[in-house]
Design goal:
mainly alpha; Methane Monooxygenase Hydroxylase, Chain G, domain 1; 3 helices; elongated; Ribosomal_bS20_sf
Length: 86
């Protein structure tokens, strides 16, 4: 543990951010997996809204600094390709 007061505060702040980021990443994985499962089932009625939801969550994660914008763009492109192939 650090001795410097500001560093102690920083450690607490970083831990909160780490937990928040982990939660957002988990949400992203769930949203993307819903798209994948809908595509695997061949259900376009479920896949399209799931794709919109996943895209929103990816954009939100970028704006919060959880993932890089190119990472989000690549993921959105990949899931869009799968949904459009239905």
């Amino acid at each position: 543990m650090a001795n410097i007061k500001s560093q102690k505060k920083r450690i607490l702040t970083n831990e909160k951010a780490r937990q928040r980021n982990a939660s957002v990443r988990s949400d992203l994985k769930t949203a993307i997996n819903k798209v994948h499962s809908a595509v695997d089932a061949g259900d376009k009625e479920i896949a399209v809204p799931a794709l919109q939801n996943a895209s929103r969550k990816l954009d939100k994660a970028v704006s919060k600094g959880v993932i890089h914008k190119n990472n989000a763009a690549n993921r959105k492109s990949a899931i869009s390709k799968k949904v459009n192939a239905l």
